[in-house]
Amino acid sequence: MRTAFVTGCARGILMTRLNAIIPALTVVAVIVAFWTLCVIPMNAHLTADQAQRDGMVLTPEAPRDRQELSGLSLALKNPAIIPLTYVQTRPRLPSPHQVVQELYDTVIDKKITSKRSLVYHGWVTLSATLLGFVMGTTLGIMLAVGIVYSRTMDKSVMPWAITSQTIPILALAPMIIVMLGAIGIQGLFPKSIISAYLSFFPVVVGMVKGLRSPDAMQLDLLRTYGTNSNQGFWKLRLPSSIPYLFASLKIGISASLVGAIVGELPTGARAGFGARMLVGDQYGQPMVTWAALFAAAITAAMLVAILSVIERQTLRRMGMGAA
Amino acid sequence: MTDPVITAKNLDLTFETNDGPVHALKDVSLDINKGEFVSFIGPSGCGKTTFLRCIAGLEQPTAGEISVNGMTPDEARRARAYGYVFQAAGLYPWRTIGRNVKLPLEIMGFSKAEQNERTRRVLELVDLAGFEKKFPWQLSGGMQQRASIARALAFDADILLMDEPFGALDEIVRDHLNEQLLKLWARTEKTIGFVTHSIPEAVYLSTKIVVMSPRPGRISDVIDSPLPRERPLDIRDSAEFIEIAHRVRDGLRAGHIDD
Ligand SMILES: Nc1ncnc2c1ncn2[C@@H]1O[C@H](COP(=O)(O)OP(=O)(O)OP(=O)(O)O)[C@@H](O)[C@H]1O
Ligand SMILES: [Mg+2]
Fold first, then answer.
1. Which end of chain B has fewer beta carbons closer than 10 Å to its terminal beta carbon, N or C?
2. Same domain, B62 and B184
């Protein structure tokens, strides 16, 4: 059973890759090309300054005059600095290959026990993400059931759920971290709270819609059997809601990851993607920031991909996968 | 004559819609005796479905009285007095055909063995043996409708309410299912309420034909069939059969001229 599931997953991923590879690669190529071009003007000034210190002759000569020029025209006037814009140690915009190099160093080369390993930092953020995701999803489903079955909850909870999402998380996150820190709760849990805060909402909205999706005839059918509402939930409403649930989970897991990262920013956490982004910023190591950014994006993509595979397997087993 | 299992007296039902009230049933009175096969026939929108739903306790009449097995329709519904076949199959897409048929059995708490036995039997009855493991989308519309009939038969209620169950089927399958339904009815002595648009089907199946007319929906004729309970398919060529069919057609025409 388990092996069947695992090979099924592998096949699912393969299929996804085959179908999605061409358009996805095209988009990536366009973005990388644009990024590569942007490196030149973005880094032109600091490259020029460095080159002049190293004895290169530039036009215009005076640094103050160069400030008047745009990065692009500076580079065009001094084509010799163009290759150098790609190899700065502290660039304003790192080039793609520098970010890839940094990712390679910190993900594959470093031991995962090292404080510089992105795998280590990734796990710190991921564990908070997953805990928050489970909490948020559980809360979201419970609220949705309450909203669907109780008029009072429908009237009272839904407006608050919506309001909760209008408060900027950047304002709220420090408060949560500081308050929980004041009562001695630190580390994983406060970050998970922020993850849960961001991820419960799509689950509530999706599940309310899903639990209400059965049509009048499907409901009438159960009434003709004299079904109680408990049976109606398990036999009709819950199975009907599964496709909606998965759509919500995919939004929720990305939101959870964002929440965990945001939770790492305000207190200057020492570990996690958020911490790496801050460190890179504060110590003028843009590559570190960018590598953490990319690692977070890749992590989010993988989490969503895993959920997609589980979704496909589940819906297929429920006879709804063919469509 | 035995006591009627279903009685409706001066039933009235008005739907309040955004475009004003719709008078779906007006002054409908009817007795259905135990073991009768009653067909409802009439133009679209004359309230056949609405009347059937009133019997089933799925719709509340605005006036009049209705009783099923001496209870209110609501009580009868909770006592699981009837099986209902809807106008569309309405199978649950995430359940296989077998598990769709088991749905009422699970809800009513039949044992696993009993569930399997009954599912096998009713699927055989509607010629769907071997399709137990298929999902609804893998079946044609007609097969889905037969599965929904099997689902209504599975728990063996004394009353069977069917809303155009064979409307989507081709002639041959329809004939076959009509025959099967008559056999089932003869063997089990169920009371059947049956909505149809087909005059031959109504005459072939019924002991009582209720002709309805629209706006407002009401009963314009009730015909007690003189045909014997035992009915081979070729009874449809007999003079008696044709005569009843004529009377039904006249009743339907009269309803139309009223407009
Ligand atoms: N839930 C409802 N709300 C408002 N109006 C309704 C509702 N159900 C039925 N009606 C109206 O009541 C009338 C009778 O409808 P009903 O479905 O009983 O007709 P019918 O005889 O079954 O027609 P058909 O042969 O097309 O199935 C129609 O005019 C219909 O529009
Ligand atoms: Mg109808």
1. N
2. yes
Topology of A118-317 in CATH?
MetI-like fold (1.10.3720)
- Same-domain check for residues B113 and B132: yes
Judged by CB atoms closer than 8 Å, whether chains meet at A220 and B93 is answered as no
Is the beta carbon of B17 within 6 A of some atom in ligand 1? yes
B20 and B57 assigned to the same domain: yes
Structural domain includes residue B62: yes
Residue B86 within any structural domain of the chain: no
Query: What CATH number is attached to the domain comprising B225?
Result: 3.40.50.300
- Together in a domain, B145 and B221: no
Which residue segment(s) compose the domain that B169 sits in? 4-81+158-257
Kindly list the residues from chain A whose CB atom is less than 8 angstroms away from the CB atom of residue B95: 319
| Number of independent structural domains in chain B | 2
pLDDT in tens, chain A (323 residues): 445 555 555 565 566 666 778 888 899 899 999 999 999 999 999 899 888 888 888 888 888 888 888 888 998 888 888 999 999 888 989 999 999 999 998 888 888 778 888 899 999 999 999 999 999 999 999 999 999 999 888 888 888 888 888 888 888 888 888 888 888 888 789 999 999 999 999 999 999 999 999 999 999 999 999 888 899 999 999 999 999 999 999 999 999 999 999 998 876 678 889 999 988 888 888 889 999 999 999 999 999 999 999 999 999 888 876 44
Nearest chain A CA: its distance from B140 CA (Å): 16
Last residue within a domain, chosen from B156, B190, B205: B156
SS (H, E, C) chain A: CHHHHHHHHHHHHHHHHHHHHHHHHHHHHHHHHHHHHHHHHHHHHHHHHHHHHCCCCCCCCCHHHHHHCCHHHHHHHCHHHHHHHCCCCCCCCCCHHHHHHHHHHHHHHCCCCCCCCHHHHHHHHHHHHHHHHHHHHHHHHHHHHHHHHCHHHHHHHHHHHHHHCCCCHHHHHHHHHHHHHHCCCCCHHHHHHHHHHHHHHHHHHHHHHHHCCCCHHHHHHHHHCCCCHHHHHHHHHHHHHHHHHHHHHHHHHHHHHHHHHHHHCCCCCCCCHHHHHHHHHHCCCHHHHHHHHHHHHHHHHHHHHHHHHHHHHHHHHCCCCCC
Which residue's C-alpha comes closest to atom 1 of ligand 1? B15
Q: Looking at the CA of B85, which ligand is closest?
A: 2
Please check whether residues B136 and B47 belong to one and the same domain. Answer: no
User: Cβ separation of B84 and A320 shorter than 8 Å?
Assistant: no
